[in-house]
Known about the structure:
The complex is a heterodimer. Chain A is mostly beta strands.
Amino acid sequence: RKEVEQDPGPFNVPEGATVAFNCTYSNSASQSFFWYRQDCRKEPKLLMSVYSSGNEDGRFTAQLNRASQYISLLIRDSKLSDSATYLCVVNPRGYQKVTFGTGTKLQVIP
Amino acid sequence: EPEVTQTPSHQVTQMGQEVILRCVPISNHLYFYWYRQILGQKVEFLVSFYNNEISEKSEIFDDQFSVERPDGSNFTLKIRSTKLEDSAMYFCASTSSSGTRPYEQYFGPGTRLTVT
């Protein structure tokens, strides 16, 4: 099983739609979880950390399921500017490396 | 808002040459990282650095690679003898050791290294 696994997509959705991405991780002892977005040929940008209780930031909601070892990202009311690759990132332990998934590509269509 | 900066944005070098990639982490951050991303592939960890020493490195980070924090602001990645397969985007990242959001890593804009 890969350390961090994501459906590569692409997810093509119309403006205003709700879209959800899942990500699974293999290390049950992983401590921290994040969603980043990456635009073409740009750096990963932190979208949000994922907390055990779930968290929301505007149109974005992240959930963590430790028992099943997956995290999810829900985007409501999709905008054209949401088009990007969404990276699931897992931190196995503290301040050491993080492990990236391959990313899920989202294309929001007018 | 503080940000990680990297120079140069693009470096072209010949195989076998040495390159130094430079990064200025966010000023109050204490943990620093280098990652690379080969075109079309995922972001891969290279090395983490804390308290003036390497704290973790990946299999990719072999003897050809080294890191240094020569002064209070810069963090550098050196590749001694570049290979064609070193062509990639190299990202520097940093994180704070405290605060309400520990472990969140902030990335610089990257240096695109092209080895010919």
